[in-house]
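Q: Can I see a sequence and its folded structure?
A: Here is a first one.
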Amino acid sequence: MFDNPRPTIRTFIIENFLFGDPSPMPDDAGSLIENEILDSTGVLELVAFIEDTFGFTMADDEIVPANLDSVAKIADFVLSKTWRASA
């Protein structure tokens, strides 16, 4: 179980969508979609990463900006899913 998934998520986004350059990475409250870091294909790649890394499957209704639009939102979503799975 991950106590703090943010560094793992942040590293994945920087390496896969920003080509290793963290300078355009918005803060944890910044929108990955509005800042054009993620597009629809990127969202699918991010979902696959989340499922593979954190060990759960995302339902279609969970693939929404409320869960995936910032590092903070992704981390909170991951924690909520992994916490429920371990309870």
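Q: Show me another, different protein.
A: A second, unrelated one:
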Amino acid sequence: MPDARVAGRLARWRGGRLLHPRGLSFTGQVELWGPLAVRLAGSAGRRAATLRLSRGLPTPDGWPDLLGLALRLHGDTGPFDLLLSASSQRRVLRHLPMPRYDFAGPYGSLLAYRIDGRRVYVTARSPRPLGRTLAEVASLADRDAACLDLFAVGVTGPWRRFGRVVFGARLPAEVDAALAFDPDGSRASALRPPGLLQRLRRVSYPFSQRSRGAAGDQTRLP
């Protein structure tokens, strides 16, 4: 397919990843509660997590960038991936990526997830600054001082907190390179974002992942 060849060339030109090539990955622990916890992880409670913070544009460190957060929740029925971009929590702007200085967020799903016929948006933000560079984030994680709170909201109404993610150890560069997050969340889950943009993500993400040699079996990664 022509699109696959183009995506492969772009991924190699950008250093392996077509999307968000500069980033760091960490282990983590997530505490979930409420109905959304069941949808994401099978049940409420504490779960292992894998997360990656990244820069979307080739801007210098400390400059505003389209920052990204990929969060993998290891649940009862397998992993569930959330792909979030730096955005606004305001209703009229929640669909748009927003350049940010600090890795504290907020990060939004941009696309709505459908739950029982309702649309739900997910966002993550830190209660404190995380730094303007990936090195600053890594330093906080080393001191067990990096965390993100998870929130959800419907088409209307207030944001409600349903979880907290605490950063763990930084993962080696080879593990970061092998990670491949699922834009659908989980192929086996009914909780998936619909729409044209989502269909484009389903095409671009696998092309990038295959071209850079990401691990085919993600369950074998930390």
